[in-house]
């Protein structure tokens, strides 16, 4: 099992969360909420209003999201879904645990107890330079005040 931190459309209540709970694509177990230890720019870009975490450590905000434990099948699905490695790159980042669901699992409990976990995150280093000038967010919501609703793939 691998740990993945999701900050955009795959979070609970967001347009692509359905994929996280579709066991035909693999297993994803919600473990808790967190935020990036380092600051990053989170922008909403392109004609489909897609959230992107730009891989520029030290700029932007501590990004809020959800921590999942996923099996190899789900990790492969997420790689394909996220267009990895062209659109997004899957990298390990340090995530500060804000809220932890998992009660058992001594190793995981200890990792959460000291507050920081290493998780895979889909961020991008391949983006148009003008994206750096877009507004930065710390918590993505497709129906947020920004008015930039995400366009589902099946509607494109």
Overview of the molecule:
GO terms for molecular function: gamma-glutamylaminecyclotransferase activity; transferase activity. Its EC number is 4.3.2.8. Residues 4-122 form the Gamma-glutamylcyclotransferase AIG2-like domain. Catalyzes the formation of 5-oxo-L-proline from L-gamma-glutamyl-L-epsilon-lysine. One of its GO terms (biological process) is modified amino acid catabolic process. The protein is of the alpha+beta class and 156 residues long. The chain has one domain (2-102, 111-136): Hypothetical upf0131 protein ytfp (Roll). It is built from three helices and seven strands. The chain has helices at 17-20, 72-81, 106-113, and strands spanning 2-6, 28-36, 42-45, 50-53, 64-70, 89-100, 116-123. It has a five-stranded mixed β-barrel. The chain is globular, with a radius of gyration of 15 Å. It starts with a strand and ends in a 33-residue tail after the last strand.
Please render the helix and strand layout as text:
Layout: E1 2-6, H1 17-20, E2 28-36, E3 42-45, E4 50-53, E5 64-70, H2 72-81, E6 89-100, H3 106-113, E7 116-123
Parallel strand pairs: 1-7
Antiparallel strand pairs: 1-5, 2-5, 2-6, 3-4, 6-7
